[in-house]
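Contributing new complexes? Match this layout with NAP.
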Amino acid sequence: MTEKLTVSVLGTGIMGAAMARNLVRAGHTVHAWNRSPAKAEPLAADGAQIAATPAEAVRDADVVLTMLYDGPAVLEVMREAVPGLRPGIVWVQSTTAGIEAVGELAGFAREHGLVFFDAPVLGTREPAEAGQLTILAAGPEQGRAAVTPVFDAVGARTLWTGEDGAAAGATRLKLVANSWVLAATNAAGEVLALAQALGVDPQSFFGLIAGGPLDMGYLHAKTALILEDRLSPASFAVATAAKDAHLIVRTGEQHGIRLDGAAATADRLTRAAAQGHADEDMAAGYFASFD
Ligand code: NAP
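Output block (do not edit by hand):
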């Protein structure tokens, strides 16, 4: 029988709300908090308890799950949670925060006696809603009994990268994976823009590569969002993708490499956000071709 836990979900945006719902469905007690209460309140109908502050949310927690925008947001929220934290709480940190930030967050965990898991996820809105995420996880044996039921509720697969969350092994793999996702999405938008500019029917390009090694499900998924005007609600918003692209470029620089394609993707996403597409799916980076 799976152990029933009290899980605090801090951040109920696209991903956090879906994860909170699946935790409730798995029978766990969920305390949810979000900076804008309107995004947490609908979770009450699913059976989650809505907290007014991060400190209130974490007070009875076995596990705290953070799914916020970036590293600074996580640190800010966890500082607000301090009055409710107690040593021994397991902290599953799933925000895509970057290697430096994970080091800083692990330091915060040490300071407060929390058992830290670096646990970014692969998968977007739909897999999150279906409880089919892939969790990339690094953390100590102590605490795995508590994180396993949480990972089972939100994901289909857990890929362990190591026992030291502070070393950010899971986040390293996540950044590599996201560099591929962002490059593929950007290429899908540019290929569509070029086809349109040259008067080439995109379908003739899809037909040309059909079934061969150049074909890719992701190309069809992302171009369909543009061609069928289904960019809202986003699975992964332009603004969040821009944050990750900048994070990848900076991380490359810090490790002595240039990632010119990722830098161009970051610029295009930033431009698309400035054009008014910030909250649309990252496929809307396509519009940067028409600036
Ligand atoms: P989202 O819908 O934009 O949610 C972001 C959350 O962060 C919201 O709850 C937002 O609160 C909160 N937030 C932002 N800044 C804050 C601050 N300074 N203080 C407190 N709360 C703050 O984004 P998402 O798509 O769920 O992504 C969440 C994380 O998962 C990101 O790190 C993203 O890179 C990562 N991720 C996303 C996907 C995806 O496909 N969507 C997949 C894997 C990983 P408000 O509601 O008040 O703005």
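Reviewers usually confirm one structural detail per submission. For this one: Residues 73 and 123 are 21 Å apart (CA to CA).
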